[in-house]
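FAQ: What does the model actually see?

It sees only this:
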Amino acid sequence: MPVSARPGTRRPRRLALIASAVAATALVLTGCSAGSSGEQSTSSSDAGAFPVTVDSALGKTTIDAKPERVATWGWGAQDIALALGIVPVAMPKFSYGGNADGVLPWDAEKITALGGKTPQLLNADSGEVPFEEFVKAKPDVILAPYSGLTQAEFDTLSKIAPVVAYPEKPWATSWRDQTAIVGTALGLSSEAKALVSKTEDTVSALAAKYPVLKDKTFYYAAANQPGVLNVYRAEDPRVQLLNDLGLKNSPSIADLDTAKGDGSFFYQLSYENLSKIDTDLLVMYFDKQSSVDAFTSDPLVAAMPTIREGRFAPIVGESFVAATSAPSVLSIPWMLDRYVPKLAAAADTVK
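And it is asked to produce this:
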């Protein structure tokens, strides 16, 4: 998915004014019942698990009682809540990869299976956190373990409800850790652990079915702007999913990284340096086939050995891109049967 498609990647403006307005509105809402109209929790969380404190890079968060109204921000948290049987009251609208309403297809399917209704969809296109929309949702907890929340955003959201952020760096929480964090916050740790185990079994079974993938090196990138690749680092979940399938990170990923330590999950590489990429497989994503064709028609791209020799595994289609870019216990089963054969076909060409 485009980097810009990730909600909360830009610093919001006027935070001081917004914080004041949010705090005032939140005070009015404190008298509202957590189980009021719109509550969509269908799980059976263990009330005895509370209170619980969750550490994050932005601060400790204590959740005093079982959340009944769950809101999410960033990518993946809504998947995990739904997989645990909880339909959020609010979650981001996904213009990239979502249906006409902005709901990702695996989420829409799960909401229907749970007999729920479409949550309030939060505006994520601007990259700024829509604080007033969170106030309107009246959440008991805001889950954002895979997000780009800043400290100021975290502090402002915390005036509305307890916020569960990422443990170390923004946009760098593995799908396993995301699941464990959400499970803890919702009092469903054992259920979350079972989901991780089930998903690992699915990944392992496909890895065993396609042994050609084992120990092949790969380079994961995206062509989101002319003349430059966005290259995903080892800590990015989409890269880690390929590691789970038996693939190894190409040494080129680190060797060509001239921006180490900048805190981002990717770095940029100009087309002039494409010839320096040494890898078995080139994995990239595109919104549509015409974008693939435009990319491979560039002379510098066409000259790459991975392109010339068919060692290229393009991921095509917005929903497919979204699923593979932010793997979760809900999106992995949705896409993996299609994803792995594409990778294996490219790996079969490696001499």
